[in-house]
Amino acid sequence: MNQFQCTLHLQTFRTLLKQCITQKDFLTGKTLHAFYIKSFIPHSTYLSNHFTLLYSKFGTFSNALTAFHFTGYPNVFSYNTIIHACAKHNLPNLAHQLFDEIPEPDVVSYNTLIAVHARRGECGQAVSVFKEVREVGLVLDGFTLSGVISASVEDVGLVRQLHCFALLCGYDCYASVCNAVLACYGRLGRLNEAWRVFREMGEGCRDMVSWNAMIVACGQHREGAKALRLFGEMERMGLEVDMFTMASVLTAFTCLKDLAGGMQFHGKMIKSGFHRNSHVGSGLIDLYSKCAPHGMLECMKVFEEIPKPDLVLWNTMISGFSQHEDLCEDALSSFREMQRVGFCPDDCSFVCVISACSNLSSPSVGKQVHALAIKSDIPCNRVSVNNAFVAMYSKCGNLHDARRIFDTMPEQNTVSLNSMIAGYAQHGAEIESLQLFELMLQEKIVPNNITFISVLSACAHTGKVDEGEKYFNMMKEKFGIEPEAEHYSCMIDLLGRAGKLNKAERIIETMPFDPGSIEWAALLGACKKHGNVELAVKAANKFLQLEPYNAAPYVMLSNVYASANRWEEAATVKRLMRERGVKKKPGCSWIEIDKKVHVFVAEDTSHPRIKEIHTYMSELLMKLKQAGYVADIRLALVKDEDVIAIEEKERRLWHHSEKLAIAFALISTEEGAPILVVKNLRICGDCHNAIKLISAISGREITVRDTHRFHCFKEGQCSCRDYW
DNA sequence: CTAGGGTTAG
């Protein structure tokens, strides 16, 4: 083979390979590579580099690395290519190692290294590389700036600084840099600043990315309507839209809880095929899981339509299941299925599945997942993961472990404090809860709307009216947080339960938006507690209008009447409920013993050891009566208007699901072991009385988690101090 | 050879 032929071959190879890369023809590219290795063509760095690029783009990382090592005399280009592959495959150490081998790194080398850190959210590291560029005297470019800016999310000050710097360098009309700035302000919730950048870019500089970034900024910060207006404008102007646009618009529908609009948009996307994109699919799943009443069924259909699901799509499914209390088991099975088909869970997958465990009635599953997380490759000391553990342990009744994780986690943020404060509040440890909040203020960790929900509910649980009002005002005045429905309902709950029913009613009347069912429910609950029948009727009617198929208002109202001995009216409410086909959820309790969950429904006889349980319960009832227990038969649920004998009412009360579960725990666990029962409704007054006595007689610590809070019974007392 | 925008989480 003479010199001439070789050159010819080299040129052919170059042309062909370049074609393969631009046309994404990986197969032909690989064949070319095989030919190249076997042929006698002299070594070409140029060709090797492009083979590395080919594998980096379409093949595995290890193939790319092999191709790189095959390059006899690597140049900057070769290094840059392989470092880029490191960024793509999240290999920061290798990236640095390779970078240090470059004899004379150029700007691109630095830019690529910044990208490695930007992808991992390592702001500090990205900034130090950025500084190095200036120190070594290289001229930075738009890539450098956009890279370091996008890494600086989470730090407004830094973004502003870099923004100024970019303007000084004359990048005010450079789309990528401006877009990075815009997106950062957006993600930080600095919508005004984002809008300013968007406006100042002008039509000449603005591109599709700018529009997309602005839409998502609005959609993620309660400005769904503005996001939709922006999209409308894009369409009117005839601008091009892509997958990013679609996914961004979906966040707007989710933000507005506009299911109908979202569905219509979904329909339009099916025509254009956008719905088969995995990112768009995640957006759809997020929408349906959060806004549709039985959304997970729809989510499964969306999932099926996507040919190449990615990790986030799986995570979104897991998250969706975990947010529906009755579907948490499905969250766990999706988590397993995801691994079965070859995905490696990341920290977000774990956060979702841990949160599913919090809603489960078996604490041991949470512990297992904890162990799994430690064994896995995820950075399990991440704040997000630890926060999930704190929430999970406290929701599983284990405040002690929650606090231990909280105390030992290397980094804390607002959410960590929120989880711990909420944990204390739910357990009736209001003092600790409020102390921690004060500490938070001292440490200058900024509370958010969620923090105040916990703080206000802690006040409500203990009847601390003055403090509650103080914090409610602080929220608006000191932190500029507008109270939402939850905050108002906490205040109504707080005032109402403390007996200030008129004040509570006034809050509902003067709220800046239409009261929803949760506010009326809070008022109704307060009326029930204080026996204010007239106001209860008003609240119940409002509640009924808003949610005619929810059993809660009917049951509560009829209990109000029953407590006032107005039996006929109580029966009328029940009849109305039956006529409308509304069914009360049957009371159900779960208890985990030896890693097995046992379910009890009221008057349940299906448990294999029910005979034993009943025998034990009769003995227990005797002891309880001796200790002064009197069944509160007003609370016995009357299923129909038939007059029922007092004995029968007593018997029904005595077979409430939580009592059955506790009795079973008492006979099947060792003396002195603590007991945790999870219930699907709120605990009833009679059970509350009875369990207090049971805790004294048996010397056990009994914790009941109902839909509202925890009741920790110990030595005849409950942690709620009967204020609930 | 490198960039900016989308989806999940407590």
TrEMBL record:
Domain of life (superkingdom): Eukaryota
Alphabetical keyword list: Repeat
Q: Where is the DYW domain?
A: 628-724
GO MF term (any one): RNA binding
Q: Which GO terms describe its biological process?
A: RNA modification
Q: Which Gene3D superfamilies match?
A: Tetratricopeptide repeat domain
PPR repeat boundaries on the chain: 75-105, 106-140, 174-204, 207-241, 310-345, 413-447, 448-478, 550-584
Q: Which family does it belong to?
A: Belongs to the PPR family. PCMP-H subfamily.
Q: What is this protein called?
A: Pentatricopeptide (PPR) repeat protein
Question: What's the name of its gene?
Answer: 25490372
